[in-house]
Amino acid sequence: YRFTHAITRNPAASIIAGLRAVDTGTPDLATMQAHHADYIATLRETGATVIELEALEAYPDSVFVEDTALCLPSGAVVMRPGAPSRLGEAAEMAPHLAALYGDIRRIEGADSFIEGGDILMTETEILVGRSARTNAAGIAELARLTADWGEVVREVHTPPGVLHFKTDCSLLDAETILSTTRLSASGCFKGYRLIDVAEGEEAAANTIRFNDLVLMPAGFPRTRDRLVQAGYDVREIGNSECAKLDGGMSCLSLRF
Ligand code: CIR
User: For ligand 1, is residue 120 a contact (CB within 6 Å)?
Assistant: First the structure.
């Protein structure tokens, strides 16, 4: 949760065609841009360098850069998104990561699918949730690709009907995870200290701990109070437009 860099991508006008599980209305580009600018300014406030990539009109969901790659201490791995319309986004990210990291590795198996939103990195392990976007072959390939970097990959499950594993959880510090109860009930966080989001505020589970701050979506006061009481320096960022596309705080950046 200590980072010197983040990569973001500006939202494209094509965002109105972004994927969504349930249609709750068309996202408004100007509002999304304002929220996105606030998000980037907050990351920068911690002293981190934020690399802002240009909007990609051909990929409506490309603002959600997290799904395209995994940035680890030893190198970066380019993902293979399970959403067909998002497959090309990973290739767009690859050259930027190659420029920053030198060597990069790629998930390549024709049957392997994995999106960054399903991956929660802690200090000791990489948890990857199987979901509609991430399959066992993708997880196994990630484990193979990162074993010589000393990474330990553990396969877990994203709750049914939930887009990504990290839709429902976030790492708050070395031993603490914020989670929905529908996810923590599976027992996958044994050994970690857990903070549950308040009932009815499940959409608050996708936050990011970024250096000294916790960025969380605005509008979830009971969960915010729990985090403040636990001692975290919380910043609320507007997320109304990304939420229409099942996106949140973690989706909007790659952090390393
Ligand atoms: C999608 O369905 O792929 C996008 N509309 C939302 C992606 C959110 N990404 C994330 O949680 N990491």
Answer: no
